[in-house]
């Protein structure tokens, strides 16, 4: 609590200064000739945070997700800051070339490229990472996409100003899905009406950990070694009126991993999963979340991001309320529960991360393109060696381009 009190005066003072700034639209579009346009989007993100204990897996700060298994004998308290969430996107929209069919393309980058560089000096210079790159051909209702895009399994996204590239609960408390190269088809029904129906189909490159030896040296994972794509199908539904908007989706996933890698043998592990999610927005209130269940979903960040023949589920929910056009409160809770007993019975091994719960509370201030968020984040992680807890208090600012 002493860390929370330390940030409150700064947050309140800055919010007061900005309380009269009017809202403005995001994104900038430029004409680049022949009827084509370039749309520049993204945001600048900065976070200062104080940790009590260490987070494991992805890291500290903006990509903290679960409590570390091992650390100092006493829980350390430290303060740091970072800007890696900062993101730039470039969307290219071409004029129609075959009747109503027009080409489009998108590129998106942020600054989470590994490895993290050590202090002093180098930790203030994060590296660029390519997130998305794809080309579309669309007539408005039907879109054919080839390139790296979000798998349909990547669904509803929690609201946070600190945890953006690594959303709340991502790979740790019910939030799953990843981006892959592949072929995607999007089909819209009843376009232009208050209600919307969309079907998404995707055939994605395989994914899985690489076996030691030549596979690892050549970056060939067990999913790629199967020679088979990941297949996903998703149904999206949405409806909007003046005072109420809702959306929902259901998605299925099947894939294969060859646990023998590129060696002879063909020991296939079948992966499958199902996920549902929804977003309800009556007036100033927002309620949203999702849940999944499946087998072998580690490559989709399932089961606290663990690979292997694991069965289990995860779910999260978040509630937000806009008290004024500027001020809102957001509360999040999510959990992940792999079937530990089944994993041990089937494999004879002990699962390392056996359960995780994440909670988060955020007070957000918005003024046009600017947003300021004060957040408390906590992860309670049950390892095979016992329960660990880590906490974070953060103050984040974003400017939307």
Task: Describe the protein's topology.
Layout: H1 2-18, E1 28-33, E2 36-52, E3 55-56, E4 66-67, E5 77-82, E6 87-93, E7 102-113, E8 127-138, E9 142-150, E10 179-189, E11 195-204, H2 214-217, H3 222-225, E12 230-240, E13 244-258, E14 268-282, E15 285-295, E16 311-322, E17 327-338, H4 340-347, E18 353-367, E19 370-383, E20 386-400
Antiparallel strand pairs: 1-2, 2-5, 2-6, 2-20, 3-4, 6-7, 7-8, 8-9, 9-10, 10-11, 11-12, 12-13, 13-14, 14-15, 15-16, 16-17, 17-18, 18-19, 19-20
Could you give a quick summary of the protein structure above?
By secondary structure, the protein is mainly β. It has 4 helices and 20 strands.
Verbal overview:
- By secondary structure, the chain is mainly beta.
- It is 8% helix and 53% strand.
- It has four helices and 20 strands.
- It has a 16-stranded antiparallel barrel. Strands 3-4 form a two-stranded antiparallel sheet.
- The longest helix has 17 residues, at 2-18.
- The two termini are 34 Å apart.
First-residue to last-residue Cα separation: 34 Å
Note poorly predicted spans: 1-25
> Strand order, biggest sheet?
2-6-7-8-9-10-11-12-13-14-15-16-17-18-19-20
CATH architectural grouping:
Beta Barrel
The DSSP helix count reads 4
Approximate helicity band? under 10%
CATH class: Mainly Beta
Looking at the structure, what is the overall shape? globular
Order of secondary-structure elements: HEEEEEEEEEEEHHEEEEEEHEEE
Radius of gyration: 22 Å
Write down the overall mean pLDDT: 89
Structural class: mainly beta
Largest β sheet strand count, sense and barrel closure: 16 strands, antiparallel, barrel
Strand runs, count: 20
How many domain units? 1
């Amino acid at each position: 609590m002493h860390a929370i009190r330390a940030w409150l005066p700064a947050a309140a003072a800055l919010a007061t200064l900005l309380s009269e700034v009017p809202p403005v639209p995001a994104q900038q579009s430029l004409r680049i000739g022949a009827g084509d346009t370039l749309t520049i989007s993204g945001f600048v993100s900065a976070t200062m945070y104080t940790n009590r204990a260490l987070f494991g897996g992805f890291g500290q700060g903006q990509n903290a997700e679960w409590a570390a298994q091992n650390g100092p004998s006493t829980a350390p308290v430290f303060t740091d800051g970072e800007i890696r969430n900062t993101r730039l996107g470039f969307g290219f929209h071409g004029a129609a070339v075959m009747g109503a069919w027009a080409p489009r393309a998108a590129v998106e980058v942020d600054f989470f490229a590994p490895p993290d560089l050590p202090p002093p000096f180098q930790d203030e210079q994060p590296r660029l990472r390519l997130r998305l790159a794809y080309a579309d051909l669309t007539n408005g209702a039907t879109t054919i996409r080839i390139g790296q895009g979000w798998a349909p399994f990547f669904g509803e996204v929690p609201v946070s100003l600190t945890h953006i590239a690594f959303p709340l609960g991502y790979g740790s408390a019910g939030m799953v899905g990843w981006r892959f190269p592949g072929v995607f088809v999007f089909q819209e029904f009843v376009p232009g009406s208050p209600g919307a129906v969309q079907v998404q189909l995707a055939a994605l490159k395989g994914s899985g950990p690489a076996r030691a030896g030549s596979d690892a040296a050549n970056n060939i994972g067990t999913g790629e070694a199967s020679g088979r794509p990941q297949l996903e199908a998703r149904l999206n539904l949405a409806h909007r009126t003046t005072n109420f908007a809702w959306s929902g989706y259901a998605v299925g996933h099947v894939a294969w991993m060859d646990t023998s890698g590129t060696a002879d043998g063909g020991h296939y592990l079948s992966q499958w999963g199902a996920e549902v999610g929804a977003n309800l927005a009556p007036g100033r209130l927002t309620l949203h979340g999702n849940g999944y269940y499946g087998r072998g979903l580690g490559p989709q960040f399932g089961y606290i991001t663990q690979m292997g023949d694991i069965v289990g589920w995860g779910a999260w929910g978040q509630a937000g309320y806009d008290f004024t056009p500027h001020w809102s409160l957001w509360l999040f809770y999510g959990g992940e529960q792999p079937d530990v007993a089944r994993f041990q019975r089937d494999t004879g091994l002990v699962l390392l991360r056996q359960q995780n719960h994440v909670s988060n509370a955020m007070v957000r201030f918005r003024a046009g393109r600017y947003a300021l968020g004060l957040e408390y984040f906590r992860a309670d992680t049950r390892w095979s060696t016992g329960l660990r807890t880590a906490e974070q208090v953060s103050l984040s600012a974003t400017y939307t381009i």
